[in-house]
Automatic annotation (TrEMBL):
The chain crosses the membrane at residues 21-41, 74-93, 105-127, 133-157, 186-205. The keyword Transmembrane helix applies. InterPro entries: YczE/YyaS-like. This is Fructose permease. Keywords: Membrane, Plasmid, Transmembrane, Transmembrane helix. It comes from Weissella koreensis. It comes from the Bacteria. The keyword DNA damage does not apply. Pfam families: DUF6198 (PF19700).
Length: 242
């Protein structure tokens, strides 16, 4: 599967206008936040829980559960702080300090964290707990759809390369610097930090409600879907240089 997602590691020069870049970026930012929250809320609405959230989302939600008892209003702040830590990690992996990329990572987290809190409050209030097999199946589909949305969003704003979520910048650094353009291999390698976070969160508060089928599907397929999205979603959008 990974071999199908190996892309030419040469990054194209920037050819998009700022207006077009912003349009792609805003669209991908919204669907990324919505997809992340869908995986969290659908997992919480099924009892007993077996779905889980997307990989980074599960780790962040686990930290939120361990520190703030799962307060949905604090989820955005947890995403923000973890994002800052990952942005610092990216500097070391890149091998030099790029101010535009670093502060771009931080800038990304501001609207993204706000959108996470916004969608978390809305979806939590409008989506009832599952009371039937039909509702459970619907939530399972929504959970997997959330993973799909995240992967497609990553594909779009990585190609736009305006500013990136720190975790996705981590994946892109690994992808083109260490894994010869393979989205799947880079995604798996980028999952090492959230795995560590998840283990720490579980030790602090032994709760497994954020981990399940959705987490596994994200681990196995999110990188591959991102690679597929590069070719199938807005195929004329090429990776832009900096």
């Amino acid at each position: 599967m990974a071999s199908q997602d190996v892309l030419d590691s040469k990054i194209h020069g920037r050819k998009l206008t700022i207006g077009v870049s912003l349009s792609y970026f805003i669209f991908s930012l919204v669907i990324n936040a919505a997809g992340n929250v869908l995986t969290v809320v659908t997992s919480q609405k099924i009892h007993p829980t077996f779905l889980g959230s997307a990989y980074w989302t599960a780790a962040s939600a686990g930290v939120n559960k361990a520190i703030f008892n799962g307060n949905s209003s604090m989820l955005g702040w947890v995403f923000f702080v973890i994002g800052v830590v990952v942005a610092i990690l990216n500097v070391f992996l890149q091998g030099h300090f790029n101010a535009r990329k670093f502060f771009g990572n931080i800038a990304f987290m501001v609207p993204f964290s706000a959108l996470i809190s916004y969608f978390a409050n809305i979806f939590s209030s409008i989506m009832p707990d599952s009371q039937s097999i039909g509702m459970t199946i619907f939530y399972v589909i929504l959970n997997f759809f959330g993973v799909f949305l995240i992967a497609i969003a990553i594909s779009i704003y990585q190609r736009v390369n305006l500013v990136l979520h720190p975790a996705d910048d981590l994946m892109q650094i690994l992808r083109f610097k260490y894994f010869k353009g393979s989205a799947a291999k880079a995604m798996w390698a980028s999952y090492i930090p959230p795995t560590i976070l998840a283990i720490i969160a579980i030790i602090i508060y032994p709760d497994f409600s954020n981990y399940g089928l959705g987490t596994v599907s994200a681990f196995l397929f999110q990188g591959a879907i991102t690679g597929w999205g590069d070719k199938a979603i807005f195929p004329n959008l090429k990776h832009q240089g900096v």
